[in-house]
Design brief:
Chain lengths: 519, 336
């Protein structure tokens, strides 16, 4: 890496423990970040990564242990303390005020004044300088909410760098980024590293960690399982398999589940479907027992097509037929009745009822089937819900828990369970494994495979290319609202998919444009 | 934003093992018995401080005095559970009471006059609900408007003058008793039984919680969100209609000023009972306890001869303290 004068670590934590009630969220964790390194943190949801990050960014206070910055012990009682000590965190969900401009967001807390009045010229100039330091070419006068997620993230990083952060924590930074945006982010991470900053990189994506990290630390159940070297030929050098073993405590031989299926007749047939915002015309078929992956950059129109088929949005033209019958959907109620199931893109905003129990969440779409004149037949409902939970491998004693108490993976399984109860003929899954740990991922793949095995037509939207390639029979590639390619998943490669998704013939800026217009 | 992460990381392990830790355990128990405990404490306090508080007669008095507010609050609970609000319930009390008296005095058979009054309330609620559901107007604004408009309607139905009806056919609904229990109290119990059944045992009830908890998720889950909204406002209006009919029977007249300011006590009862104003979370029996707390407090303070203006101050403080305890519970849950 780069040669820096300070030999010791930028940040050290020693023997940190944190309990929530009877649960040890962190037990005796020691860990450090050196100048000029990218230190990856991996572990399933609930393993303790976020808790540790909250401790070093001043949100939680540890029950035991100490934190040292540049060799000096520090006490941090608020995020403000952490920032002045040089630790900044870029949360998975961005911390920007959408209506304000980029410059205003960057200036919050220390706005330049002239005669007691906000000095806009100076503010915009300062913003330009801050953005230039991270190599971002963004107009500081634009409302930040109009920028793509990736650009907003750049602004947040620019703020952290401007505040002189020595240690920067990135929590799942690529979860909502397109490939191009991710590449830009990686370039920036490299340059920050080369300038001697210490970066903590939290991710579920092995390829990214492999590409970026110098060291990796794995957490499981609140314990630090180990820190390993990922560069050079030292004795600690690991393989991806080692890391997965450390994370799950067991082997996951075959992450992607794809049994031999034979596709039957066409169940879902879409012809010249168009929707608002330049979507379509799109035509596609999905057969019984087939899993079709839909890939493309963010903003390519995949989610929009799914919502048009289901009736979540109104289509402006085209026809959809299901088992040969025309599907006229004006709203999700129609889509559901006709036998279409949709797992929406955002679990928390569009699918879950966090205050309601597991039972209510699973049964919400199918209560009519378990009611007489509107009165719920509790016994029958419970039996059906239990059956689904068994199928999903969710512990039965979770039945009465509020869904907010579950991990991301289990929450996603609840939403899948709701769809299973519907017994859909066509199942559309929009990013089914986003923000889900590796154990739950393999479960979800198994469930998808099972559903296809029962003869349903399954359309899976995924931004995780290895996943899309691993579980699909066919791949449909979308770009700028249109289907641009259909590939056999057995022969396709990540590269061939990306060529179609980005449109290699068009100049590079156009693909950035496409990625920038996220909904 | 940081709270989201905490629910995946900390809560995943913490809550799955049931209420762990002091904060969470407090939340767990407060959720179930907290507000009832406050009521019990209040009753003990009043029994010690207020002369004649702990008598059967006074208990019936409190129950009768509470019934109208409790019935309003029951309907309002449904609305607030969907994340809405109805500020016009007090005015609906007036319009439906006036309507029922006018129907009766124009010769309509008594049962029909009573039903007519309730139907007027339901209709007023439906108009509110239609505006909220189909035009997607904010409930606060819509019902603020109808609060004024319906009050005007009540005046115009009577040309501005109260109408005395001392021989009112359904006067028993206000002043009669069944087996020693005042009729308004019996009606209140029936209203709560129906509301409880609707919320806990029917598909509609689950949909109410779903719409209030996450409207977009409810829509995508195939719930007819507009119909649920229309229905809760209609039921809320019907409950206000019932309260209006009882009120007119209590005062044996049609009063255009009936129910003025009642929405505030009703909202207070709902919130005291633990229902979140944001929707999706709350229990109907909590609302009943909340209404009784307000009633016991008023009654006890009167018995102690506390001047009216101090009563208002104390009532306000009690509401704030109860809500503070409630947010303590949320804190114990680890942030919502």
């Amino acid at each position: 890496m780069s040669d820096t004068s300070t030999a010791g670590p930028l940040l050290e934590v020693h023997g940190i423990s944190k309990r929530f009630g009877a649960t040890h969220a962190l037990s005796d964790v020691s860990f450090d970040v050196r100048p000029g390194e990218v230190h990856a943190l991996m572990g399933e949801n609930g393993a303790g990564k976020s808790t540790l990050m909250k401790i070093i960014s001043g949100i939680y206070h540890p029950d035991a242990g100490r934190i040292m910055i540049n060799g000096t012990p520090v006490t941090m009682t608020s995020p403000r303390d952490a920032i002045s000590a040089g630790v900044a965190i870029i949360h998975q969900e961005l911390n920007t005020i959408p209506e304000m401009t980029v410059a205003e967001n960057l200036a919050i807390g220390h706005e330049p004044l002239k005669f007691g009045v906000l000095d806009r010229v100076a503010m915009n100039q300062q913003a330009r300088e801050k953005l230039a330091r991270v190599g971002a070419d963004i107009d500081p006068r634009r409302p930040i909410g109009r920028l793509s997620v990736g650009m907003q993230q750049m602004v947040e990083i620019a703020r952290a760098v401007a505040e002189d952060a020595k240690v920067l924590v990135l929590d799942e930074p690529t979860a909502a980024l397109s490939r191009t945006e991710s590449d830009q982010l990686f370039a920036l991470i490299h340059s920050m590293r080369d300038r001697g900053m210490g970066l903590i990189y939290i991710s579920h994506r092995m390829e990214e960690v492999w590409e970026l990290a110098d060291r990796v630390t794995v957490f499981r159940d609140g314990h630090l399982i180990g820190t390993r070297d990922m560069r050079g030929d030292g004795p600690d050098k690991v393989t991806p398999g080692d890391i997965v073993r450390m994370m799950v405590g067991r082997e996951i031989n075959d992450l992607y589940v794809h049994t031999d299926r034979r596709a039957g007749d066409v169940r879902l047939s879409v012809r010249d479907l168009t929707g608002p915002g330049g979507i379509g015309p799109v035509s596609l078929d999905v057969r019984a027992g087939e899993v079709v992956g839909m890939v493309g950059l963010i903003g390519a129109g995949r989610t929009e097509v799914a919502r048009l088929i289901y009736g979540a949005d109104r289509r402006t033209g085209g026809t959809v037929t299901l088992d040969g019958e025309a599907l006229q959907v004006a709203n999700p109620i129609d889509g559901l009745r006709a036998g279409v199931g949709l797992l929406p893109e955002s679990r928390k905003d569009q699918a879950l009822f966090l205050d309601l129990t597991v039972r209510d969440n699973i049964s919400m779409s199918t209560l009519s089937g378990f009611s007489n004149a509107g009165v719920i037949r509790g016994g029958a409902l419970l039996k059906a819900v239990r059956g689904v939970m068994e199928q999903l491998k969710v512990r039965a004693n979770a039945l009465g828990l509020e869904s907010r108490a579950l991990s991301g993976g289990n929450q996603q399984k609840l939403v899948l369970g709701r769809l299973l109860l519907q017994k859909p003929k066509v199942l559309i899954l929009d990013e089914p494994t986003r923000g889900v740990d590796i154990g739950a991922k393999s479960e979800i793949y198994r469930i998808i495979n099972d559903i296809a095995g029962t003869g349903a037509a399954v359309l899976v939207i995924s931004s995780d290319l290895p996943e899309a390639l691993g579980i699909s029979d066919r791949l449909l590639v979308m770009r700028r609202g249109h289907l641009v390619a259909e590939l056999d998943a057995r022969n396709a490669t990540e590269e061939s998919v990306m060529e179609h998704a980005t449109g290699v013939y068009a100049e590079d800026t156009s693909s950035i444009q496409t990625a920038g217009t996220t909904p | 934003m940081s709270t989201t992460a905490s629910t995946t990381d900390a809560a995943d392990t913490a809550v799955a093992t049931k209420p762990a830790g002091k904060g969470a355990a407090f939340g767990y128990w407060w959720d179930r018995v907290g507000i009832a405990l406050v009521l019990l404490l209040l009753i003990v306090l009043m029994a010690v401080l207020a002369p004649n508080f702990l008598t059967v007669d006074n208990a019936l008095n409190v129950a009768r005095a509470v019934s109208i507010n409790a019935i309003l609050a029951a309907g309002l609970t449904l609305i607030i559970l969907t994340g809405g609000i109805d500020l016009s319930v007090g005015s609906i009390v007036a319009v439906s009471g006036v309507g029922a008296v006018l129907l009766w005095s124009s010769g309509t058979p008594t049962p029909l006059a009573v039903l007519g009054g309730v139907a007027i309330g339901a209709l007023a609620g439906m108009v509110n609900g239609a505006l909220v559901a189909w035009l997607a107007l904010p409930a606060f604004i819509v019902t603020l408007g109808s609060l004024t408009a319906l009050r005007g309607l009540a005046y115009s139905m009577l040309n501005g003058q109260p109408l005395v009806a001392s021989e009112l056919g359904y006067r028993g609904l206000g002043n009669g008793s069944v087996a020693g229990i005042p009729q308004p109290v019996v009606i209140m119990v029936v209203v709560y039984a129906v509301a409880w059944f609707l919320l806990e045992r029917t598909r509609f009830g689950r949909h109410v919680y779903a719409v209030g908890g996450n409207m977009e998720a409810a829509r995508l889950a195939g719930i007819n969100v507009k119909r649920v909204l229309l229905t809760v406002y209609m039921l809320g209006g019907a409950a206000a209609g019932v309260a209006g009919v009882i009120f007119s029977a209590r005062v044996l007249s049609a009063q255009p000023t009936a129910g003025t300011g009642y929405e505030l006590d009703a909202i207070a009862a709902v919130v005291l009972g633990g229902t979140a104003l944001a929707g999706g979370r709350g229990r109907i029996l909590g609302t009943l306890v909340g209404a009784v707390i307000i009633g016991v407090l008023s009654n006890g303070l009167v018995l102690m001869n506390v001047p009216f203006f101090y009563q208002l101050i104390i009532k306000g403080l009690v509401i704030i303290i109860a809500i503070a305890l409630d947010s303590l519970k949320r804190f114990g849950r680890g942030g919502t």
